[in-house]
Structure formats: C-alpha cells, structure tokens
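Batch job 17 of 40 flagged for manual review because the log was empty.
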Amino acid sequence: MNSRLLPTLALFVAAGIFFVYVNPTWSGSITDTKAKIALDNQALDAARQYAAQQNVLADARDAIDASSLERLSTFLPDSVDNVGLILDLNALAARSGLSLANIDVVTNDIPGTKTAPAATSPVGSVNLSLSAVGTFSALQTFLIGVERSARLLDIQDVVVKGSDTGVYTYQMTLRLYWLR
C-alpha cells in the first residue's frame, strides 16, 4: 500500500503545484511581460525607422547649397519677426518716396467663416494694415519693391484717397507668411 500511496501523493502534490503556482505565473505575469516586450520591440523598430528617415532627410538637407538655404529662410522664415519686417517696409517706403503713417496687425478671423485648424498647415500668415502718404509714382516704386522682396508678401488690397495736390493717402493690406 505504501508503494501506491507515495506516487499518488506525489502526483497530487505535482498537480497542486502546477495549478496553484506554475500555471498562474506562466499565463499571468509571464504572458504580460512577453506582451510588453513585444510592444517595446515594436517601439524600438519604429525608433530605428525614424532615425534612418531622419538621417536620410539630414543628408538631403546637407546636400542643399548653404546660400540656397539662406534664401529659403529669408523667403519663408520660421518666425513672424514683425519688428524686422516693419523696419524693412519702412526702409523700402523711404527709398520709394512714401511716408508710412501707421502699421497695424490685422487678425485673419472673419466672423461667420470657418478657418482650417492651424495644425493642418505648416505655413502661418498674418495681415498687416499700412497707411502711407506719397505720390502715385512713389506707390508704384514701393509696390515693385514689395514684389521683388526676398520675403514672401501678398498685397491683399490698396485703397487710394484722392487729393488735388498729387500727394495721395494709401491704405494697404499686406499678408506675410512664415513657417510654423
């Protein structure tokens, strides 16, 4: 009887150890750990792909001539730089013979219209309202200077207030762009 009792007891103890300790550990914490390892491996693969793409883009950027990058940075800067732009416009107006009287930043929001979310466009814009006084030929020279400017600017509208003296008052709206 002893010869049968000991193996049967050992079988029950082994089954108990399996069901109480081994099976819960294997299907619980070990499975969770394997799943976490798989997610971490996916994240590492994505990081490697990102780094490889970043290296390819950096090599492509480094292949571009430095003067071309400088021109592009001037054309579409990475910030608004209102002060620099106002100084440039004032200098252009002075060279053209115009006298700038007022420069204001105008919001782009028009009541009743829907605008695209800012995050969808990598390019931002802002409108500037300019008031100037001068002759018509000075205005033409100023507009040609804005057209030839290294900075991306659009003239949205020009309002001319007449005068008998040949010196007119101009109200202009310019839109400037920058890279977000």
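Reviewer: the log was empty due to a logging misconfiguration, but the result itself is present. Confidence is low (pLDDT under 50) at residues 110-114. Unflagging and moving on to job 18.
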